[in-house]
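Forum > Structural Biology > Help requests

Title: Can anyone predict the 3D structure of Nucleoside triphosphate pyrophosphohydrolase?

Hi all, first post here. I have the sequence for Nucleoside triphosphate pyrophosphohydrolase but no way to get a structure on my laptop. I'd be grateful if someone could post the structure tokens.
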Amino acid sequence: MRDNALIHDSNGGMPRLLAIMRALRDPIAGCPWDIEQDFSTIAPYTIEEAYEVADAIERKAWGELRGELGDLLLQSVYHTQMATEAALFTFDDVVRDISDKMVARHPHVFGDESRDKSADQQTADWEKIKAAERAAKAEGRTLDGVALGLPALMRAVKLQKRAARVGFDWPDVGLVVDKIAEEAAELIEARDELTPDKVAEEYGDLLFVMANLGRHLGVDPEEALRAANAKFTRRFGAVEDALAAIGRTPAQSDLAEMDALWDAAKVAERTAE
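Reply #1:
Sure, ran it for you. Structure tokens for Nucleoside triphosphate pyrophosphohydrolase below:
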């Protein structure tokens, strides 16, 4: 039975959102689009919403963040409603599991362990607890449990961190730089002599080592690339603005002119700093 009073109650809180999703998925009176969806079709939206939350935070768009967090919350509700229909688990199960996990992973807050620890010690303890959890799930191999659906650069760093815990890591950053030079040379060779598939393989190897360099330097590759994307967007926008000021578009310009305008945009940014 649809609880229309709850659905239209602005103060209905979490029960209201759960009721709305049940109604949307109702096989008789629900939304045809929502009824047709399954876990795999909704998963891309879940990833997209997580990135939109990160984007709002990056831009300090606090007015937008509230809505984006709601969109992300809806994804959890959507997946759990489908799971409930399939008799897999319920929303209450999800809430119970994450609550239990947070309590178990913070014995220095919710248990009898001392809070007098450094951040590094707390991180080490956190990893020990997670390792024990993986062991309980029969994830006995070093790289088990690193999610396949993570962005590739993020997953590369997580894989490397796991391997480093058991000693499979370069001892200093200089060796990582040497490996980058080696992989770059192999990429050039592949470009000149090998198949497109082999070129892609060598390019992937180079990206993987670049992610490792970021880890050794204490730089998050995802964040660094996101910042580089933002810088490129900003500077190319300055190039377009400069061309527009003289009545032209990038398509009506050439590389030499745009490169000069790019350099001018760089100088302007550094002067502003």
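The radius of gyration is 25 Å. Residues 221-245 form the longest helix (25 residues).
Shout if anything looks off.
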